[in-house]
Write a structure and sequence with these properties.
By secondary structure, the chain is of the alpha+beta class. The protein is built from ten helices and nine strands. About 3% of the residues have low confidence.
Length: 296
């Protein structure tokens, strides 16, 4: 989340009464709804979602979607999507409040790292498994919004950020074993114990001169077997995984240190600044210098 620059903050509320339905455009990045009263979501290409009080629904950039009070309700009715600064403090406790709306902003250069891992939508139910943390965060969030007290904005931003993090964790746990680490291998832990062990070593020592031969020998496998099992577990090749580790380290060093681009490249094992810059631009769609400037 840090590398993707993900920041979740409350953006307003859905306020409605009677029968209503609205068609909404694809979010610019990620939209998160904390549901207060039952409503229906119809996302293009997805099954219809019935969301009840306490549920959380996340919609990512990609497709338009529809919200409604009931299935088959024609577009229109008494519904408004209000920005936070348009709402009175008591609007959130009003019976007309359908959901709190949050917006997840992402870094323009690295946000795609998180975006491409997520499905079009995620639903976290207020069931027994999630009830304790979900109810607690929901109650705290509503309390801070109602209070509008000193430090309320900081508290609200912290709570919405925590809700988004817990949603990602719940989503990761919900994935079947053979899907938990696909799409770049960054959700969850590999379910193949021998692959998990070597991934831990790769994360601890990304600057070691790893080769397919040395990696496979560490797992007591042939190169072909190792490559196949690694890709099955992680969703990408060993070479691509190591590259991603290095690029994530590079991005953090560009943000958090004053080291030159050349020194960062040498630190990560590249023989020249140009080789590092080319690799970084290929992975991040921006040069190291422009990335540092945009994050400064």
């Amino acid at each position: 989340m840090n590398l993707a620059g993900a920041h979740c903050s409350i953006s307003g509320a859905v306020v409605a009464s009677g029968r209503w339905s609205a068609l909404l455009p694809s979010p610019k990045s990620i939209k998160l709804f904390v549901i207060k009263s039952r409503c229906y979501f119809a996302i293009k290409g997805e099954q219809i979602v019935v969301a009840d009080r306490g549920d959380i629904l996340v919609v990512r950039h990609g497709n338009p979607y529809m919200m409604s009070s009931a299935l088959g309700t024609p577009l229109g009715g008494d519904v408004a999507f209000l920005h936070d600064n348009q709402l009175a403090n008591d609007a959130y406790q009003s019976s007309a409040c359908v959901a709190l709306a949050c917006f997840v902003s992402l870094n323009e250069h690295t946000g795609n790292i998180l975006m491409k891992m997520l499905p079009n939508s995620i639903v976290v139910r207020a069931c027994e498994e999630n009830k304790t943390w979900l109810a607690g965060l929901y109650d705290q969030l509503v309390s801070e919004v109602r209070a509008n007290d000193i430090g309320a904005k900081l508290a609200i931003d912290t709570l919405t950020q925590l809700i988004f993090l817990r949603v990602l964790r719940a989503y990761s746990r919900s994935l079947p074993a053979n899907k938990a680490t696909t799409d770049s291998g960054w959700f969850g832990k590999p379910h193949d114990e021998r692959i998990a062990a070597i991934v831990a070593h790769m994360n601890e020592r990304p600057l070691d001169p790893w080769t397919l031969q040395s990696l496979s020998e560490s797992c007591n496998m042939s190169r072909t077997t190792f490559a196949k099992r690694f890709r099955l577990s992680m969703g990408i090749t060993p070479h691509a995984y190591l590259r991603d580790i290095k690029m994530k380290q590079a991005a953090l060093l560009l943000i958090q240190s004053d080291c030159s681009v050349a020194n960062i490249g040498y630190h990560l094992g590249y023989e020249s600044e140009s080789a590092f810059s080319a690799a970084f631009k290929k992975a991040m769609n921006v040069s190291p210098g422009h990335y540092r400037a945009s994050m400064g």
